[in-house]
Amino acid sequence: MDSAAPEEAVPPGLEISLGSALELCRLGLATMIDIRQSFEIEMKGAIPDTVHVPLFEVKLMLGHALTEDEQDILDAGQPKDMDVQSFFTTINRLHHAHDHLLLCVCNSGRRSLAAAALLRSLGYPKALSVAGGFQAWKKLQQG
């Protein structure tokens, strides 16, 4: 019997490949939202032409409970100056005004699944998670 923990199943239709995400952005049909904390972007770098909306700050701002790990990551960085109104203004501008897909990207593709699910629960059905996240993008850049 395998003692490894089973991988969590990705809900159907919630994830998109990096290649497809980049092509949709290139065509102007989608916007990539980097949901990592500011310090992660400063340390590891950013994907060009992404919009930065830190997930844990958004969850906290909307009254969602954070796990202990999420709180630790949030505490490690400098908070972004964002309130509920500016969050929804940003998301509405991207989603409704442009009828864009909202492509959430994190470091590895796990937190972005939670971000896409959160956006969908808030009424943004075109939210998706980019598989592999920043690590996949970095690998693609390195050839």
Could you please describe the fold and organization of this structure?
This protein is of the alpha/beta class and 143 residues long. It has one domain (15-142): Oxidized Rhodanese, domain 1 (3-Layer(aba) Sandwich), CATH 3.40.250.10. Helices cover 47% and strands 13% of the residues. It is built from seven helices and five strands, in the order βαβαβαααβαβα. The protein has helices at 18-26, 38-44, 55-61, 68-76, 84-97, 111-121, 133-142, and strands at residues 15-16, 30-34, 51-52, 101-105, 127-130. Strands 1-5-4-2-3 form a five-stranded parallel β-sheet. Strand 2 (30-34), helix 2 and strand 3 (51-52) form a beta-alpha-beta unit.
List the helices and strands and how they pair.
Layout: E1 15-16, H1 18-26, E2 30-34, H2 38-44, E3 51-52, H3 55-61, H4 68-76, H5 84-97, E4 101-105, H6 111-121, E5 127-130, H7 133-142
Parallel strand pairs: 1-5, 2-3, 2-4, 4-5
* The CATH superfamily title: Rhodanese-like domain
Spell out the helices and strands N to C: EHEHEHHHEHEH
Q: Provide mean pLDDT, rounded.
A: 81
Number of separate strands? 5
What proportion of the residues is helical, as a percent range? Answer: 40-55%
How large is the count of helical segments? 7
Apparent shape:
globular
CATH hierarchy, class: Alpha Beta
Tell me about the largest β-sheet: 5 strands, parallel
Beta strand %:
5-15%
Strands across the major sheet, in which order?
1-5-4-2-3
End-to-end CA span: 38 Å
* Second CATH tier, the architecture: 3-Layer(aba) Sandwich
Question: What is the count of distinct domains?
Answer: 1
